[in-house]
Amino acid sequence: MIVRLLACALLLAAAPAFAQTRADSARALRDSARAQRDSVRPQQRKEARAVRVAGASPVLDGRLDDAAWAAAPVLSDFVQKQPKEGAEPTERTEVRFVYDAEALYVGARMYKADPRSIQAPVSRRDDGNQAEHLWISLDTYLDRRTAYSFGVTAAGTRIDWYHPTDDENDTDVSFDPVWTARVARDSLGWTAEMRIPFSQLRFTAGAVQRWGLNLDRWNPATKEDVFWVPIPSQERAWASRFGDLVGIEGVRPSRRVELMPYVAAGGTFHAAPGAGNPFDDGSSLEARVGGDLKMGLGPALTLEATVNPDFGQVEADPAEVNLSAFETFFAERRPFFIEGSQLLAGRGPEYFYSRRIGAAPSGDASGDFVDFPGTSTILGAGKLTGRLRGGTSIGVLAAVTGREHARTFTTESGEFQRVAVAPTTAFGVARVQRQFGKAQSTAGVSFTGVGRALDSESPLAELLHRQAFAGGADWNLRFKGGEYSLNGYLGFSHVAGDSAALLGTQLSSARYFARPDADHVRVDPLRTALAGWTGSVGAARNSGRHWLWDASVSATSPGFEVNDAGAQGTADDVFGFARVRYRETKPGPYLRSYSIALSTENLWNFGGVRNFTALRTDTRLTFKNYWETLLTGWVDLRSQSDDLTRGGPLMGTGRSWVTIVDVFNSSASSTRLRGRIYYGESELGERTYRLLSSYSMRPSPRWRFSVAPNYLRSTNPRQYITTRPGGREATFGNRYVFSTIDRSTFTTQLRLTYSFTPDLSLEGYAEPFAASGRYHDFGELSAPGSRELRRYGTDGTRVDTLENGTLRVTEGTSTFNIAPRDFNVRSFRSNAVLRWEWRPGSTLFAVWQQDRFAREREGSIVGPGDLLETLNTAGDNILALKVTYWLPLR
């Protein structure tokens, strides 16, 4: 059943891809030569030539003493982009390209007048900003839009990423191919050799290959950045400006077949399992095996499948205290979902939020002791991704999670029970995007589907949708080489299930259909399906000497719902945005560059109520020494909120203002500094200030230490508490209760890393976290749309404090209680990870993780001493070991 669901989801979504693949293959055989000849004005571009190895291939040791390098042409015509745009480099760089039947080889010499000045700290993979490095970008499809990048630092650290768009700054670091690089130093500077297997690249079939090419050498000590083809500072582009790499012949795309089996074992040790808990004796051990398969389908598509996947996170999510009605969406950290994720994401709504797959079950279980699963088991998952000849990108994902149960125990009866908390669920995601035109415009369609095996008699049917579908089209039309663009999207959603589940959807924080003063939405308790739509249109000027601008308008209907597979905060919105920016990229006497932006944001609901209006200004200053300052200020105007009362009537919001000052030095500096001050007030008495700083240093080339303290103090006079019956007629017979809350949060992130080699590192991370909240001055909304509260203890009401801190509110003959809510939370999360890539593509992880937590009813302001107290809280210790083995079958 599970295999059938997974296979059907993949086949249905991928059917157009296979049809397109066959058509593209035929077209490739017919006119590949013409396509190579007629690529965008190759005669006007720089050319570099790769030479086929006649004898032995280079031996990767970082030294250019192999005979193969002597026959290769030298590429050395680099140009400065920073600090003097268009100037000659101060140091010479020479690069050569050779290839054999299996791989492309890059050999480079970076001359240095004083080799002792080479900045080369040792770091783990993809962390190369602080080291001198060289990297190349390859547009293997020659689509003048996408590119793969490979680089190596003077210390031998490999860096790689993928450019999904024609934007130098748009990088996807989840791209982790299996390749090798070595470096060496001598009296002339340093040298590097790279071996990039053709099996790790995707390109179209053809007897002769022509690929887009660019190179960059970065010297952090002098901040000199030199390119083979520099992109002008005032332009937003990348692959469309590349030169060409020619000379590669007789190389065909590989039908990549790779296996990645793994073995993992771990144990969790609890400090306080609880007396009499039959499910916890203080420890739990587990072991598992599984594996991933990666296989090429033709020259352009890759199928990835996983059996018993290990999706454990090495680093935990940050601690937080969420007092809002809205979900917090954390970043994805699981490798299977990160790799190739850009091919599943389009413009507009987040139809697919990968952390929905394998998330904690939504069901409920009660008892004196409960053994509740923290995640849903992923029974299987598969992906089909690739880019077809002609500019069509395809991404398909399917996954199935299993039925989950919680175990409960009741002490009085001694009874054990097994309660279903999650049904078997199938997820399907598909996206197809087409590139067209000389300016690389794009248009795409996305689709997601979720199906759950829900019995009509199951309590889970009252909580979850049986079916959920969503999707839409999006476009980005580029003009004048991308200087101007017209973009937008149009989407739909449809969910269906039990009427109780749909009632919960209508009452959720995303829409609040039961708002008593709303005349454009209503609750239907018999509804078994809900549909909605969303759309947007915008225009922008992306490049130019000084003036840039963008504007857009979007709308999301009240019934739009994508949270089964995606991520959505609210619906029932009409949003308008406009911004104009002036920038100067030519260095002056004091500044290297600067920009000033003015923008406005406006939000209405479909009933015509203005929920939000803001005016904002942003200034960015880059000084001659590469320090930067960001100055931000905005003003929120008075408006009406339709979600502050959490399903009640409108509530007025006051004028407020915020200012932010952010100062930091260059990311390439061996010592990093940052300071940020946030301060804001409102006419209703709200006050917020936040102090954030960070400090990072390298005591030696192998050590790295960073600390980032963050302190927040805020007063919110409109913190929602509860809704109670017995209110006045003016507020529709309900009391919408609020209070003032004084909050404080103090957290610090500490990291300490020792890199034995670029492939072997020991990393430590710790986050002590302390937060508090003190509630006072309770009251209720005085009238719909009002900004004022009717404070308890005034206007004919009396407040008494009971012995346990409960407040008793009396009005005439009516009495109700407000339970104490003050809190102090302390948390300590840490891990130590030994990471060793013991052979190319194969990795060993050894992890020790701690998770400590305590909560008390105090409400006292936190300080540095509370961070030390987090070490005294009880918690769990987790030990884990995982070994993967990369096995290329072809």
Description:
The protein is mainly beta. Helix content is 7%, strand content 50%. The chain is built from 5 helices and 46 strands. The strands form 5 sheets. It has a 24-stranded antiparallel beta barrel. Strands 1, 2, 3, 4, 5, 6, 7, 8, 9, 10, 11 and 12 form a 12-stranded mixed beta sheet that branches. It has a 3-stranded antiparallel beta sheet with strand order 16-19-20, with no helix packed on it. A hairpin with a 3-residue loop joins strand 14 and strand 15. The radius of gyration is 30 Å and the shape is globular. The two termini are 31 Å apart.
- Briefly note the structural class of the backbone: mainly beta
Instruction: Provide the residue-averaged pLDDT.
Output: 89
Poorly predicted runs are: 1-43
Q: What is the 3D shape?
A: globular
Query: Helical amount among residues, as a percent range?
Result: under 10%
Q: How much strand content do the residues show?
A: over 45%
Number of E strands: 46
Provide the fold topology.
Layout: H1 2-37, E1 47-52, H2 67-70, E2 79-82, E3 93-99, E4 103-111, E5 133-139, E6 147-153, E7 158-163, E8 180-186, E9 189-197, E10 208-219, E11 224-227, E12 243-249, E13 257-270, E14 283-297, E15 301-307, H3 335-338, E16 369-371, E17 378-388, E18 392-401, E19 404-410, E20 415-422, E21 425-436, E22 441-452, E23 467-479, E24 484-496, H4 499-507, E25 529-541, E26 547-556, E27 573-584, E28 591-604, E29 610-623, E30 628-636, E31 639-641, E32 651-653, E33 656-664, E34 672-682, E35 687-697, E36 703-725, E37 734-757, E38 760-781, E39 789-791, E40 798-801, E41 807-811, E42 814-818, E43 823-839, E44 842-856, H5 864-869, E45 875-884, E46 887-888
Parallel strand pairs: 1-3, 1-12
Antiparallel strand pairs: 2-11, 3-4, 4-9, 5-6, 5-10, 6-7, 8-9, 10-11, 10-12, 13-14, 13-45, 13-46, 14-15, 15-17, 16-19, 17-18, 18-21, 19-20, 21-22, 22-23, 23-24, 24-25, 25-26, 26-27, 27-28, 28-29, 29-30, 30-33, 31-32, 33-34, 34-35, 35-36, 36-37, 37-38, 38-39, 38-43, 40-41, 41-42, 43-44, 44-45
